[in-house]
Structure formats: C-alpha cells, structure tokens
Design brief:
The protein has 64 residues and is mostly helical. It has one domain. The protein contains 2 helices and no strands. The radius of gyration is 15 Å and the shape is elongated.
Length: 64
C-alpha cells in the first residue's frame, strides 16, 4: 500500500471520529434542549460536519 493511500486512510478515520463527536453532541443537545430534529436542523448539522471535517480533508487530498 502506498504512503498516499495510508495517509488517506488515516484522514478518513479522523473524519469518522470527528463526525461521531459532532453526532453525539447533536444528540446530547437535542435531549437536553428539547429541540425538534427538523429537516432544517438536520441539514444545518450535516453542513457543519462537512465544513469542519470533510472539506478540509478533501482539500488536503487535492493538494497532494
């Protein structure tokens, strides 16, 4: 396996870990704030995940 593939695998693992943290925080907020999980709220959450974790990784992979 090439170094680039190994780096990509590590980045994907990190992205999954970050996504899980955001998912848990979102669920925690929903439980204690009594927030309804509307389509708009879910969209905002997914966009937040993308902007904070996936987009920087995609950018890093494009730079290689």
């Amino acid at each position: 396996m090439s170094q680039s593939a190994l780096d990509s695998g590590k980045l994907a693992e990190q992205a999954n870990a970050v996504n899980e943290i955001y998912r848990k925080a979102y669920e925690f907020h929903g439980l204690f704030a009594g927030a309804e999980k509307s389509a708009a709220t879910e969209f905002a959450f997914q966009r937040n995940i993308y902007l904070r974790s996936i987009a920087p990784i995609q950018h890093a992979l494009r730079q290689k």
